[in-house]
Amino acid sequence: MTVDSGHTAVVVAADCAEADAFTDILIGLEMPENGEIRLDGDEVTRWLPAERGIGLIPAGAGLLPHLTVEQNLFLTARDDHASPPFRGVVAYMVNKTDIHGFLRSRPHELAHDERLHVALARALCRRTAVKVMVVEDRTGCDPCHAAVSAALATDPDLAVLVVTDDRTRVASLASPSRFRKVVDAPHP
């Protein structure tokens, strides 16, 4: 399967567990039994998750409820005293994703779409540039449409891959003006 920059593709898994397993392989938390993952021609299957250039927007946004939006963004720095250059990256992504009004808020104080925008900003606040954004869409969670739209609006060169277990949402997950490819993934 190929997802070109600026386009959205959708992978439909049989259930939530298979969707999670597929996502874990893409982002590098698990290794596939066979096959490979390529990004811009480079085989990245054995690369560490932080080196892959693949970001993740979890279903439901995956924000820690006891932290403010700003603290959630700094999680990618892995310490409370992020370096000045990393603070600059966070400030840039805050402006680019237009979430500066939420920095002191906690996730429960935000609307669903706002939480997805924060999750997008957090996924983009990495030392390795993100080229592919994986967006989880799960049955039982609010739809991820805002995350897909925001990712493409924030960086038109991003490739967006939605991994879902909800076949009923497939037709509405990609903009009609965008290429859409649906692939059943019975075994990740």
From TrEMBL:
Coiled coil (UniProt feature): none
Question: Domain ABC transporter, which positions?
Answer: 24-130
SUPFAM superfamilies associated with the record: P-loop containing nucleoside triphosphate hydrolases
Example GO molecular function: ATP hydrolysis activity
Presence of the UniProt keyword Translocase in the record: yes
Gene Ontology CC annotations of this record: ATP-binding cassette (ABC) transporter complex, substrate-binding subunit-containing
Q: Quote any Pfam family the record assigns.
A: ABC_tran
Q: Could you identify this protein by its name?
A: ABC-type thiamine transport system ATPase subunit
Instruction: State the species of origin.
Output: Nonomuraea jabiensis
InterPro entries under this entry?
Answer: ABC_transporter-like_ATP-bd, ABC_transpr_MalK/UgpC-like, P-loop_NTPase
Q: Which UniProt keywords apply?
A: Cell membrane, Membrane, Translocase
